[in-house]
Amino acid sequence: MFFLKKSPSLWAFLLSFLSFLYLFSFEIKGVWVTRWELYSPEKIESIVDSLSIANVTDAYVQVYGSGFAFFNSEIAPVRYKDFDPLEIFIEKAHSKNIKVHAWINLLYMWDRREMVDDQKHILKRYPTSVLVDDKNISLLDYSLEMIKERNIEGFYVSPSSDIVKDYILFLIDEVLLNYNVDGIHLDYSRFPGKEFVYDIFLRSNFIQKFLVDPFEIRSENSFKLFGEKGVNALLNEWQNFPKDELKSLIKDIYFLVKSRNPNIQLSSAVIADVDIASSNFYQNWWEWLNEGFIDYVIIMAYSPSISVLKKQLDKIQNKTTLSKVVVGVASYNQTVYNMSNNVRDLYNYPVLGFCIFSNQSLLDQKGSYSYVGKTIFK
Fold this sequence. Notes:
Structural class: alpha/beta
CATH class: Alpha Beta
Helix content: 40-55%
Strand content: 5-15%
Strand order of the largest sheet: 1-2-4-7-8-9-10-11
């Protein structure tokens, strides 16, 4: 001890070394694997081998996207009939001690203008469940140009529809009952924009509770009935209502997962900037954490700028604990070297771990798996 007191440089070295160890003590070292990569058993085996080289602990594997299942489903159309991507991925990954989270697109169901012709597809079954904008126009009536102008991905369905809820819960239950997954991972657990909250299901639920149609809140009759204060109160309730409806769906999924197996983790990819998440997408995901309706989230912190990443994490700390937050970083818009430096600069944030988007972009940067295994996920 006397030697250490007399050697501040040694203290500095020890503190630096301990910080370095802390950097690699994260529980989750994850990678997102998109559905486009799951086209053959041989490709899946190659992916798992590569993830093992990178010391990945958790693989988030997309098994439901654009309304198609990449597993043997009874309710949704199945993309591959001659093999089961999820089954093969789980078998290979577990042999390498890699956990598998079934990544499911929650509300975003189709990404092309031409309507899908498979009768089992959710949009074919329940076209009235598609979201409606503030002009009372369904997304189904949008042209490709309108979709691009609004900067949205495609067709979303309503979290307020009981039919949609039952469909999603049944789909997730298929995975829980038939596959040895370690987690369920949700994506697009949000609205596509702040104007897309006028579907008949969400409006009906609001009318039942507040006795006024959201389209009529600012009407002359509403001012006569409720006064200016009453109208402002209703506008505030309407602003929060889509957030609560979405949270209710997350809650239902959480209790379904835990009823099947309390050890299975429920997570979701979420908007990293809490202000934008709330105001533009009605995704108050920190409430899901604080109220115990989800195990953890992965923030889509894809900016290559370390200052942006730190600002996002600082804002999150004002909303919830970082111990249930995984930082999702991007490898598609920066070098793996820069990504690694950013992760190192975030060492003092007590997050649950890091997750890279995506496996394909790691593959595109030759030698990335080995580099990630020796640096970020050492």
